[in-house]
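ESCALATION

Customer reports they have been waiting on this structure for their group meeting. Please prioritize. Original submission:
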Amino acid sequence: MADAALVTLATELGASLKARGWMLALAESCTGGWAAQVVTAVAGSSTWFERGFVTYSNDAKIEMLGVSPETLKLHGAVSEQTAREMALGALNHSHAQIAAAITGIAGPDGGTPGKPVGTVWFAWAGQNGLVQSKICHFSDDREAVRRQAVETALQGVIQLTLSTDL
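Update from on-call: job pushed to the front of the queue and completed.
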């Protein structure tokens, strides 16, 4: 059963994308396809959701999205640089006009002092080459971190669809 609040958010997202005639692509790591699941829970989403990439491993990020091995080596999978390359890769490997990427550490393990559990990087890319990114530090358990990441990613797409920058 889909989270009702997230489905409501995805319904708003769909209306915003449809109004512009745009399709969305998603690149997900720590959320494991949850954002795509929420989006496809909305009836009629095939008119505005083009595809999703679940790239949990570094190899998947490289092979499916074209993330540079050098980026992963220098900055790690959970970094602004990787999130930005994931969003651009989702855009470049789809027919979408806008893409969102999520990469983070949901826990309960895997955190470091520099990147604690709950650290999630986001990026949004538009067909005009604009890329925006941000970091969030979520708290609570693994599921809560992942849910907050899905919500943040979808809200970011809505904000971009309302922007005149794209």
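Sent to customer with the following note: Helices lie at 4-20, 34-40, 58-65, 69-75, 80-92, 142-162.
Escalation resolved.
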